[in-house]
Design a protein that fits this description.
GO molecular function, one term: L-malate dehydrogenase (quinone) activity
Oligomer: single chain
Low-confidence stretches: none
Helix content: 25-40%
Organism: Pedobacter psychrotolerans
Largest sheet: 10 strands, mixed
Pathway: Carbohydrate metabolism; tricarboxylic acid cycle; oxaloacetate from (S)-malate (quinone route): step 1/1
Protein name: Probable malate:quinone oxidoreductase
EC number: 1.1.5.4
């Protein structure tokens, strides 16, 4: 680490990572590859890695690449479709795939078949207005090379060849349309995260502690950070000192950011949203569907609640999920406390939180309606995608908690952000990740942003630049502006990750 990071006091570790999810795993591997001599300590309150938002059952979107998620391409007031966010997410996902390909090539994680496989990504809509929107979305995205392989059709017979299950029992005169990207993938971030932590545990000067909860953290006068950590098995509490802290605790990040006391963290709040799935229990139905089919969200729904009929591979077995159905809980984590939300309200964020609530009454109404749903109501939502669905073939599964970011806004007082945000101290000694979607799929780009903020001097060195380009060959370039580079990059990562043969 550079002189900026060379503090005068004694430390127990160079880096402490809080939370054993995909973000901490990604940052840990990146740092250890860039600076092998770093000492790293990782603390997780549960007894296994990736048990919260990174877990396959809890993760609302596996392999977000903006191919099919319609919430990333909103229709503007003039009728045109905004593609900026979709292009950025697709670009970021290509960065993630390059990093994962590096992990495979270097033998840092096991077979790609354990965490990624090829599966078509589809958007599916009905009704004239939605069909017109989807066609405009397709035409707008075709201008970008990242989406050049996308197919569009409003022919029911073609859609039937793409995803026959969603066409069974559907009215023949219904106006429908769909897009498809065969390049889509299904990613099990739980498996990938655990693979990366298994690698890290084998490295020198890396220690991973489960059943350990961070109770407090503060900055010393010497520039180091002190954390107070409790061993939940023995009830012993001890202090650990590090030069750099990363708070990657999912919904638990906001309370820890507040405890840090850094000025950059003031004014942030969180709005928790829970989720549920309908999980198919009929193997014959599961075998008939092989696609991720996304539709349009209801008015007021948060982006993570975009409905989809989703084929996944979980624990080596194909699964079929529908949802998520949103709900409200004051917990910030699936294994959290009902006091999480009230405890997070501070003098510096109460105004932004109240303002955000007043400006998002549609969301409040939507969540109330979702909470009050009966099994029959959930079935009716499923039937819009699967007309022949029967309740006996599906069971309710609880998904993870998401905490949407609330931040100060000069005009509105406070706004609800549907995305991820890195909050870091001015001196780069601590950083926290807040928010949810698209999260895991863009973890590598998010952590590269963190490196640029918190390890700026290190990142400018020839050694780090060369190593990052070894891990991510297109680092500093944009595939969306270079068709040839995009093609070559995708061909390489698909071959290494065995996506083309999955």
């Amino acid at each position: 680490m550079t002189k900026k990071k060379k503090t005068v006091g004694k430390t127990d570790a160079d880096v402490i990572l809080i939370g054993a999810g995909i973000m901490s795993a990604t940052l840990g591997v990146l740092l250890k590859e860039l600076e092998p001599g770093l000492s790293i300590e990782i603390y997780e309150r549960l007894d296994i890695a990736a048990a919260e938002s990174s877990d396959a059952w809890n993760n609302a979107g596996t392999g977000h690449s903006a191919f099919c998620e319609l919430n990333y391409t909103p229709e503007k007031s003039d009728g045109t479709v905004e593609t900026k966010k979709a292009v950025q997410i697709a670009e970021n996902f290509e960065v993630s795939k390059q990093f994962w390909a590096y992990l495979i090539e270097k033998g840092l994680v096991s077979s790609p078949g354990n965490f990624i496989r090829k599966i078509p990504h589809m958007s599916f809509v009905w009704g004239k207005k939605n069909v017109d929107y989807l066609r405009k979305r397709y035409e707008a995205l075709q201008k970008c090379t990242l989406f050049s392989e996308m197919e569009y059709t409003d022919d029911a017979k073609v859609i039937d060849t793409w995803a026959p299950l969603i066409m069974e029992g559907r009215k023949k005169d219904e106006k429908i349309a769909a897009t498809k990207m065969d390049l889509g993938t299904d990613v099990n971030f739980g498996s990938l995260t655990r693979d990366m932590f298994n690698h890290l545990k084998e490295q020198e000067n890396v220690n991973l502690y489960f059943n350990h909860e961070i109770r407090d953290l503060k900055k010393n006068k010497d520039g180091n950070w002190v954390i107070k950590v409790k061993d939940l098995e023995t009830n012993d509490t001890r202090k650990r000192v590090a030069k750099f802290i990363f708070i990657g605790a999912g919904g638990g990040s906001l309370p820890l950011l507040e405890k840090s006391g850094i000025p950059e963290g003031k004014g942030f709040g969180g709005f928790p949203v829970s989720g549920q799935w309908l999980k198919c229990t009929n193997d014959e139905i599961i075998a008939k569907h092989h696609a991720k089919v996304y539709g349009k969200a209801a008015v007021g729904a948060p982006p993570m609640s975009v409905p989809h009929l989703d084929t996944r591979m979980i624990n080596g077995k194909q699964a079929l999920l529908f949802g998520p159905y949103a709900g409200f809980s004051t917990k910030f984590l699936k294994n959290g406390s009902f006091l999480d939300l009230p405890k997070s309200i501070k003098f510096n964020n109460i105004r932004p939180m109240i303002s955000a609530g007043l400006h998002n009454l549609d969301l409040t109404k939507y969540l109330i309606e979702q909470v009050r749903q009966s099994p029959e109501d959930r079935l009716e939502a499923l039937k819009e995608y699967l007309p022949t669905a029967e309740l006996k073939d599906w069971e309710l599964e609880y998904a993870g908690q998401r905490v949407q970011v609330i931040k100060k806004d000069e005009k509105k007082g406070g706004v609800l952000e549907f995305g991820t945000e890195v909050v870091s101290a001015a001196d780069g000694s601590i950083a926290a990740l807040l928010g949810a979607s698209p999260g895991a799929s863009t973890a590598v780009s998010i952590m590269l942003e963190l490196l640029a903020r918190c390890f700026k001097e290190d990142l400018a060195t020839d050694e780090w630049q060369a190593k990052i380009k070894d891990m991510i060959p297109t680092y500093g370039q944009e595939l969306s502006d270079d068709a040839d580079l995009c093609k070559k990059t995708r061909e390489r990562t698909s071959k290494v990750l065995e996506i083309e043969n999955a």
